[in-house]
Design brief:
Elements: H1 9-17, H2 20-33, H3 40-52, H4 55-58, H5 72-80
Helix pairs in contact: 2-3
């Protein structure tokens, strides 16, 4: 089997979540805009998919406390993408 024929481990893991398309859309948006804040719709779609397939129960995740982040720009970004502030689909 050549290197080209081997599945990429990252893509294999993302495909297993059931949210490959949502992840791809989020990554493309981030690449195209250069700013996560411009990808809130894609981020919400990915988060909704993640919860739909119960990946939050399968994978250990940690909610970030924005107050624990020293950089104010990063803290503001985290505050912008909390579930309460994400737009509906």
């Amino acid at each position: 089997m050549s290197e080209e024929d081997e599945a990429d481990p990252w893509e294999t893991r993302i495909e297993a979540t059931g949210c490959y398309e949502e992840n791809e859309a989020l990554q493309i948006c981030r690449y195209d805009t250069g700013d996560w804040r411009k990808c809130l719709k894609e981020m919400k779609a990915f988060r909704d998919c993640w919860q739909k397939y119960k990946n939050d129960l399968r994978v250990s995740t940690v909610d970030i406390n924005p107050d624990s982040i020293s950089d104010s720009k990063d803290r503001n970004l985290i505050n912008q993408v909390t579930p309460d502030t994400l737009p509906d689909k």
